[in-house]
Amino acid sequence: MQAVPGEYLEIDRKNRANQPFHDLTLRPADVRVCDFEDVVVEFDEDRARVEAARCIHCPDPAPCMVACPTHNDIPSAMWLIEKGDYKGASAIYHATSSLPEICGRVCPHEQLCQGSCVLNHQHQPVLTGQLEVYALDWERRNDPYVVEKEKESHFKVAVVGAGPAGMACAHVLLKKGHSVTVFDSKPAPGGLMVYGIPNFKLPKTVIDDKWDDLVKAGAKFSPNTYIGKDKTIDQLFAEGFSAVFLGVGTGIDAKMEIPGEDLPGVYEATDFLIRGNVNAENLPKDKAGKPPLGKRVAVIGGGDTASDCLRTALRLGADEVTCLYRRTENEMPGGKKDRQMAKDEGAKYRFLTQPVQFIAGQDGRLAAVECIEMKLGEPDAKGRRKPVPVEGSNFSIAIDTAIKALGYWPDPIIGKTTPDLETHDWGLITVTDRQTYKTTRPGVFAGGDGVTGPDLVVTAMVAGRKAALAIDEYLAAL
Ligand SMILES: Cc1cc2nc3c(=O)[nH]c(=O)nc-3n(C[C@H](O)[C@H](O)[C@H](O)COP(=O)(O)OP(=O)(O)OC[C@H]3O[C@@H](n4cnc5c(N)ncnc54)[C@H](O)[C@@H]3O)c2cc1C
Questions:
Q1: Does the domain formed by 156-251+410-476 have CATH 3.50.50.60?
Q2: Centroid of ligand 1 to alpha carbon of 191 (angstroms)
Q3: The domain 255-408 is classified under which CATH number: 3.40.50.300, 3.50.50.60, 2.40.160.10, 3.10.290.10?
Q4: Contact 276, 321 (CB under 8 A)
Q5: 277 - beta bridge partners?
Q6: Which of 52, 157, 208, 405 is the most exposed place for a label (fewest CB within 10 A)?
């Protein structure tokens, strides 16, 4: 089928579903594992238009729109992409999303928009995520997006945390005309999009460009500023900020609480991913230099972070990279797509295996991990069968490096240093509701992982946008 600019492709509604499906093109596993470049090959124009023409335009509200946490009008965007109107399609995404070029790349689409596409019943879904990327990349190259102010304001707002929640909040506040300063404890903005998600899933240039849009609209950035240590929320109010948004995420790696956890050669996932993936100039001072790995690496955990660590270790040159997980593959929380890519790139998996101690060699560095075999017992409160140790089944695996990818906790510092700010569950910030994201402290709003616990870029972004609208209303009433 030939796509002619400005014209819709001549396909009737029934035949749209019958168009041949071609999945995303990935760079070959043995090539991509040698670098940190994007694994997905960009669509070309013909491919994008033909793929968009597979959308059958379900009646409003289309299931994909409902499943999208930010409710992008995906069918309209598909219609415009099919026509070759990429600027128009981008405008559709900008209307409901502050990070469309990022969500298009990292959302678990198979669980959200693509997962709910009605074509799944008999065919394959429309590749909505990659089409979002196509439209937004076209716009960036040809007719860049500009944040337009809807009104003037004399209010100053402090945004703490430059992750997706903070960036989205800043974006909407700038549109509302407010002056925004973003404070972050790290040297560069982006939160886990920079200091977590590896480059081969989300190139850092995409975040840099997005941040530039905000800077051009007037956003100021205060790097290396730890709120709670370097200054408090009370000080921010004293400096003249009229409202504060907390998008502080969950930055503390969960511990295993087993012997040998502090041995040289045992890494926390964040530390490892930061040092493995972030350019030297954006590294915090205490995390300089690529992590020395040796030949044999074990990654402990079963989520997306574990997949990212496995794939980063392979790219850093380890010979043997094995995931140790205490349940079976069926119970793994991480996405199947990422796991398959890790397998294709050479990662091995050892299920029903629980480390019980890290063992040092004569040089004092990690030399082995002692594990115990597990079996699945009764279901827990969430319905997942609990892993139970098999007595006497201990065994050791020789390794040079272990990476703990077990989950994240919030840093309780903000709660501890802010009077009247209620927190719960070791530091998650309490909000009164999920529409305004007001905290118990007047003028302070919060959203993202720091409120919900670890979740997704898109959910953090949605929270930041909603909180910004509530902040705008709060300021109007002052
Ligand atoms: C390895 C990894 C891979 C992931 N992959 C995906 C994926 O593929 N797709 C997806 O949708 N999600 C993914 N996620 C989850 C996603 O990154 C998070 O859900 C999202 O970034 C949360 O956004 P946030 O703005 O709430 O917090 P964060 O992104 O964590 O940003 C919080 C920011 O606040 C700063 N900060 C914290 N405390 C303070 C303080 N006291 N003072 C100043 N600054 C502070 C931090 O430095 C950080 O920059 C991944 C997460 C990890 C760890």
A1: yes
A2: 5
A3: 3.50.50.60
A4: no
A5: none
A6: 208
The DSSP annotation for 127-153 comes to -HHHHHHHHHHHHHHHS------SS--
Could you give the CA distance from residue 247 to residue 99 in angstroms, rounded to a whole number? 15
CATH number of 13-142: 1.10.1060.10
Pocket test for ligand 1, best of 192, 226, 231, 428 (most atoms within 8 A of CB): 192
Q: Ligand 1 pocket: which residues have CB below 6 Å?
A: 106-107, 160-166, 183-186, 191-193, 196-197, 201, 226-228, 247-249, 251, 273, 304-305, 308, 411, 413-414, 448-450, 454-458, 460
Question: Consecutive sets of 10 residues in the chain, 478 residues long: mean pLDDT of each?
Answer: 55 77 94 96 94 92 97 96 96 98 95 94 92 98 97 97 98 98 97 96 97 98 97 98 98 94 96 88 77 94 95 96 96 89 98 98 97 94 89 97 95 96 95 96 98 97 98 97
Q: Cα(192) to centroid of ligand 1, in Å?
A: 4
Q: Tell me how far the alpha carbon of residue 162 lies from the centroid of ligand 1, in angstroms.
A: 9
Integer Cα distance of 435 and 445 in angstroms: 11
160 C-alpha to ligand 1 centroid (Å)? 12
Residue 285: per-residue pLDDT: 75
Question: 3-state class of 14 per DSSP?
Answer: helix
In this prediction, residue 16 carries a pLDDT of 83
Question: Which ligand 1 atom is nearest residue 338's CA?
Answer: 8
User: Whose CA is closest to 269, among 236, 235, 219, 307?
Assistant: 307
* C-alpha atoms less than 13 angstroms from C-alpha of 55 in its C-beta half-sphere: 31
The dihedral of CA 447, 451, 452, 456: what is its sign?
A: positive
pLDDT at 383: 83
Beta bridge partners of 324: 300, 350
Fold match between 156-251+410-476 and 255-408? yes
- Atom number in ligand 1 closest to CA 228: 41
Q: What pTM value is reported for the model?
A: 0.95
Q: Which atom of ligand 1 is nearest to the CA of 166?
A: 25
CA atoms within 13 A on the CB side of 149: 12
CA of 98 to the centre of ligand 1 (A): 16
